[in-house]
Specification:
The structure is a homodimer.
Chain A lengths: L3 E6 L7 H14 L5 E4 L2 H6 L3 E3 L7 H8 L20 H13 L2 E8 L1 H17 L4 E6 L15 H20 L7 E7 L6 H5 L13 E3 L7 H14 L2 E7 L31 H13 L2 E6 L3 H4 L6 H19 L5 E10 L2 E9 L24 H7 L11 E2 L2 E2 L11 H4 L8
Parallel strand pairs in A: 1-2, 1-4, 4-5, 5-10, 6-8, 6-9, 7-8
Antiparallel strand pairs in A: 2-3, 10-11, 12-13
């Protein structure tokens, strides 16, 4: 009889990270593993013996379907970096003792670069000690910045949400343009990689011209040049929409959002939170050109909008989750599952596995050739790369007019008492 | 043979204002009117003879269906208040000369309080001069603050979007709560009326506890008391979510967002835009209680999100649009169409007409009895009132992975040359 699978989620959530979790659970059950344990709050919670038996949560097919469509990291997530093995062996001894105690054969970690670093270290430790558990990484990040894999689960749905919202914001702005030119600056997540910011270009089509300007963090940003470009555009049209990454910085390396640091307020609380990049640029344009401006930050919504996901993305996330268990079951360890693009037309993808040492801590940014010469838009090739990833919908399961999720408020489940371990979930 | 219908849109758009426009067009055609002209940018554009022949835009049933699902004010909108008749007769003379020139029999204006003021004035002028055109108002506003009507088209879809997004933000926050309490402040539109802010409570259900605190602009807001309440809640739970109206103010009448005024920056551009209400409160909580905080502004998205509308709302908006033409065709003038709630269980509504003098410039706020005693949540009665209005979906018509809209970029249509008048659309 097979032992158990342990799965955790780490880093920022996506709209489909729970679809991968569902895939891990389903494949583990199908392949005859005894139990699937879920780490609460990733490796950080696991070190405190915080885990659950997933079968206490997923009792039937509907639960599994709900889990696939539930936003946020269902198990809870963490941002926790394991020490190097030579720095602190005790942490590793503790983790492996727990793995033995729970009879874990397969360890799956769903996450981005930092999470793959965790897989790498645990695998390396298993080599050093001859431990038999297998360690497999499951890619996840809206930022799409993981190496080797064609793209990451989570990116497609965030891109779809961003393109949809960008089109809606452009339409809204067009309604107000009579004898009153207006400029909108939309701010998108992605501090170092501009994949998501570039995805705003997908709003371009028969029914929409798309944004006028797109600035990725891969290129140095010049505030004055930006204002000049907006001014030129306003001479030709009434509505200008610019999309900027939260991470754009000047050629000196200063983040644009830092330009507002140093603001002082006269209330009791001292410094006020930095104004965002979009707010700052909107204000600069307003002050310089005098026109009406608006800043829109998509903020948390772009990674949490489970109500508007890409079918390709949800399915791939699910498949990639399943592929981690399959890979481990067939003997792989120290690998991450990757997505290979088999064909562009029609779009087809397949999963593969790749040495995690080649992936961990890498960062894949948008190649220079996919940004236009002026550095203020993405190319057709960039859009061709993205477009297949936003296709199709998983309509939410609607109850009383709202998307229903698998109840994440698992504090209320009685597994907290049942599941054993010193569970002091507070 | 009947003459023509003229229709315009005014004020802030909603996700369903174009569904009303579609309703006007369809009923006018069915009732045998010759043409439907659309004012470009409301009465302001019309004064400059900016109008289009709607049949140049809507050529078939699919176009009509697309229009129903297109966000923003398709015809363009304005914020333009007509002078009182005794102040400036020339404006009225010009409008009525244009109405005669275009053989207009029915004048429909889709909008909120200010737009109903326009209907009232034009109707009053027609009484003074014996003009035979009929003037009918079509209610529209996400703010739900129009008098007499049970609710306004636009509110239900915005409420649905807000409740859905609030649930997603709550889920996102729950994923990050391990050994790190966090507070999220969500800011919602509605400067004087708290209907939309209160609608965040609809996120409460079997799968979500909903926000912890909800502050409407109807009640005075106390920053210190708010921080105290958050502190109390953090003693019992790890994740606290507060929803605030952009319009909350202290008992002295100062807007909370004004607390950040007076910030000075050291860059070349002088004052930076006021930090928003949510950003300010998030920063206050962070400074006072030391925990991680996040501010989320739903901004333009809440009125533009045509990708997540309520079926009840889209249908009612369409019906209300049709009812304006019907009312005029049957002899009414100086009225607004209202929605009467016929039954709560099952929800049923019907359209009626009401004297626009009783509606214009009024403002319906949330009644005190629908806010809890402490002033930090809405009551069950409030939620029972809202819930029917968010039911059902109109799924967007998806093309290449994105919602397709009726192309609003009508500058490119050749009607601009065809439609006559001195159309200098730039």
């Amino acid at each position: 009889m097979k032992g158990n699978v342990l799965v955790g989620q780490s880093g920022g959530p996506t709209a489909v990270i729970n679809s991968s979790l569902a895939g891990v659970f389903k494949t583990a059950m199908e392949r005859g593993y005894n139990k699937v344990y879920g780490m609460r709050y990733g490796i950080q919670g696991f070190l405190d013996e915080q885990y659950i038996d997933m079968s206490d949560i997923i009792k039937n097919e509907l639960d599994l379907e709900l889990l696939k469509r539930t936003p946020s990291a269902f198990l809870g997530t963490c941002r926790y970096k394991l020490p190097e093995i030579h720095e602190d062996k005790a942490v590793y001894e503790r983790i492996f003792a727990l793995l033995d105690k729970l009879n874990i054969e397969v360890f799956v970690y769903i996450g981005g670069n930092d999470s793959m670093d965790t897989i790498r270290k645990l695998f390396d430790y298993s080599l050093l000690t001859g431990a038999t558990q297998r360690f497999v990484g499951c890619p996840k990040t809206i930022d799409n910045d993981l190496a080797i894999t064609d793209h990451t689960p989570g990116f497609g749905s965030a891109a779809k949400y961003i393109a949809t919202s960008t089109k809606e914001v452009i339409y809204d702005a067009m309604g107000f343009s009579y004898k009153k030119k207006n400029v909108t600056v939309i701010e998108i997540m992605g501090r170092n990689a501009g994949w998501l910011t570039g995805a705003a270009a997908l709003s371009k089509g028969d029914d929409c011209d798309g944004p006028d300007l797109i600035y990725l963090p891969e290129m140095p940003f010049d505030v004055e040049h930006f204002t000049e470009r907006v001014k030129e555009l306003l001479e030709k049209k009434d509505v200008v929409v610019a999309v900027v990454s939260e991470g754009i910085k000047t050629k000196e390396g200063k983040y644009v959002c830092e330009f507002t640091a140093g603001s002082e307020t006269r209330d009791a609380f001292g410094h006020i939170q930095m104004t965002g990049t979009a707010s700052y640029l909107a204000e600069v344009v307003h002050q310089t050109l005098g026109c009406k401006t608006r800043a829109v930050e998509l903020s948390t919504l772009q990674r949490a909008a489970a109500h508007l996901t890409s079918k390709i993305d949800v399915d791939e996330a699910f498949n990639v989750g399943g592929a981690t268990v399959k890979a481990a079951d067939e003997g792989s360890s120290g690998v991450m599952v990757v997505i290979d693009r088999v064909s562009d037309d029609p779009y087809q993808s397949a999963t593969g596995v790749y040495d995690v040492h080649r992936i961990a801590n890498g960062e894949k940014v948008v190649p220079r050739k996919w940004i236009n010469e002026e550095g203020d838009y993405v190319t057709e090739e960039f859009m061709d790369y993205c477009r297949p990833l936003i296709q199709g919908q998983y309509n939410p399961i609607m109850v009383e007019g709202l998307p229903r999720h698998l109840n994440m408020n698992i504090h209320n489940y009685d597994w907290a008492r049942k599941a054993g371990g010193n569970q002091t979930i507070t």
